[in-house]
Specification:
Layout (H helix, E strand, L loop, with lengths): L12 E2 L5 E2 L5 E4 L7 E3 L4 E5 L1 E10 L7 E8 L9 E7 L2 E4 L8 E4 L11 E8 L3 E6 L2 E6 L8 E9 L17 E9 L11 H4 L8 E3 L5 E4 L1 E4 L23 E3 L5 E4 L5 E2 L6 E2 L4 E4 L6 E2 L2 E10 L5 E11 L12 E9 L2 E8 L4 E3 L7 E3 L19 E7 L1 E10 L7 H18 L14 E5 L5 E11 L1 E5 L2 E5 H10 L16 E12 L5 E3 L2 E3 L5 E4 L4 E4 L4 E2 L9 E2 L4 E2 L12 E2 L5 E3 L4 E3 L4 E2 L9 E2 L19 H54 L10 H23 L12
Parallel strand pairs: 20-26
Antiparallel strand pairs: 1-2, 3-15, 3-18, 4-14, 4-17, 5-14, 6-11, 6-15, 7-8, 7-14, 8-9, 9-10, 11-12, 12-13, 15-16, 19-22, 21-24, 23-25, 25-26, 27-28, 28-30, 29-31, 31-39, 32-34, 32-37, 33-34, 35-36, 38-39, 40-41, 42-43, 44-45, 46-47, 48-49
Amino acid sequence: MVSAHYCRCPLGKTGESCVKDLDTNYDLYFYLTSQDGYTALPYPIYLSGSSFSLSVWVRFYKSSLTGTFLTIFIAKSANSLAGVTKFLSLDHQGLVVYDKNGQNPQRAAYQQQTVTDGQWNYVVVSWNKDDGFDLVVNSLRQSQISTTPYTSMMAENVWVTLGADFDSTILPKANNGFQGHISQLNIYNRVLSFDDEMPQLITDPQKIFNGSILRWNEFVYYRGVQPVYPSSVQKPCTGANCLAYNKTFPTFKKSCPYNVYMVSADRLTTVTWTEPIPQDGAVQQSTYKSGDKFSWGKYTNMYAIRDAANSSTFCSFNIYVMPEQCVYPDPPHLGTRTYERGYYPYFGCTIGCTDANRRIDRDTPKVYTCGPSGAWSPSNRNIPLRFPSCGLVQSHARRRLMMEIAYPNISATFCDTLALKLREALTSVNTRWSNQICSHPNCSDMTVAVNCLTTPTSVKMIIPTSKATLTRSSPAETLSVEEILIRSVLESRLLDISTEIPNGSPNLNLFNIDSTESCPTRQSVVDGYCVKCGPGNFFNSSTLVCEDCPVGTYQDQDDQTSCTPCPQGSTTQTVASPSSSDCKPICSPGHYQTGSRCDPCGVGFYQSQYGKFYCDPCPVNSTTQGDSSTSASLCDVSSSVTNEQSDRRENETITVYYIIGFSCTGIIVILLVTVVCILVRRHLKLVKEMHSSHYVKTIDSSTLQQIDANYDTQYQELEESHYHYLTPCNANSQL
């Protein structure tokens, strides 16, 4: 159903770069009378732990309607909706919970409240593994489902949908879904307090509590649904004097299109789309109109319709205008790249190294993505993406292990002995695993710190370098070092030395083991390997990772701790430059570096900084007077108007010239045709006179030559007489 790439922002954030705060002040209006419109998350979310809650506000379009307004499915994978099964749903009667195969529904019904009264009502569903499901409406408990298959820790990928009931093929069923408004759906990884938190939702419907894992604003609108701003959620009326809330809203006969994408090298581009059509003559307004001009960037276009009762409805879409779309970045230095273009407008890229002895020298995304903005780096599309380079692999990374445990009853007298016995215990395990845990056979590299001044006595043991995965032949097995130590401590009671020291039994509930990967100095840990930094990068001794050389520097060697500055008066276009050839002359403001020289920005562009490889465009309806502008303040409307007027005057002058030129040419052609006609008539008259006596007169050659000479003389005189007043027209001629 999704078939696309989606990147989920941190909770509370939205936008392509996840820097915008979430706007939850809206409702979703499901307007199809067939009750099969729906919206859904574009991806499953992970639900884990021993409890959860969901809260949602709902208002049926009118009190006579029925249907399902929320359905949650269990997905087999975090990245796919194939084979989903129903988990729970909410409808006009209450809560329905399904077993782990999506079968055998159990119901908790509304008892003291109803949600089909045409007013806003809020519903809370809570679950914990010991008590089952609890249904609350408007802060009043309705009913419970105490016996369910869900009696252990929850660890499921769940897919949330709103507005429709679905068949077995996950298609919406007509007349089984919802018509009305839904708002403020939030999911938490704990049970909301019935006494303290749920009542707060009555007075503050948009309130968010701690522990949220899904917030209102992550849904994709599939059909028959549109947002309504601002939210009209309010405290439900429960008194005897309540008025029925049956306000209607205008609808779109044809709603907004999906997002519009336009690629154009021009600074200003005309963008068109199919505009929505309101139903029943509602007045329509919009942020932009089809055919408007746009500069490069992202624009949100909202259409609003308003009926005679002053009720309004909105729909919106994004307009993306880009100079180019997801241009392939250069491969990593000494590496390769592979592109995937299967999910327009999203594009993916994976990177690797050509040499088996090299790896990308730091942790990187599994897939680099380029989204609707058309840029791999949306924060500044003018700077090309530079991948990290490939560094030399040195060895497998080792583990740094830290174990903590406590002895509640041991005497401080035995602190030194305790440290000795613990080292001996770890040495015995190291021996059984062929000295692969400690660097030395007697584990002399291990640090044992016993704190006898606290109660209970605490112990911290640190093994600085251990192999990550250990293998032995008898018995034949391969385990991680953490698995070996946990099994030895918890199952074999490795750290219980009560037979040698009084009260030497540890509290195993306080046992903890933590591990980190480690490498020798100037080597970075990457996917379990120790890798030296490649060209274009340097080893940061503070962060212990390879980092990009900053702009204005380069590094053409492996295994370096610093970068080389470019020669004075030059800089680089990007970070991570692996060669001095990347250093280019620094251009002054108003100019940009083209790779070999500094060119003016051009009319309509500006650059306020030194050493840039691009210029910024002026906004729509503004431009610059010169081609080397150094500030955005030089982009003004008056310049745009002046240039347009100048262009118009120039076009008008050219038009006048064309009219004069075409007129003169037309007169010349007419006169030439007239001359030819006169000559032809005179010639025909002569021939007629020669044949008028009805006999043929013999003409000798001298007479014929005399006739031709007279004819030529007459023609030349006539031609000269005509050209006497056929002076060529010029731009100042008066017609």
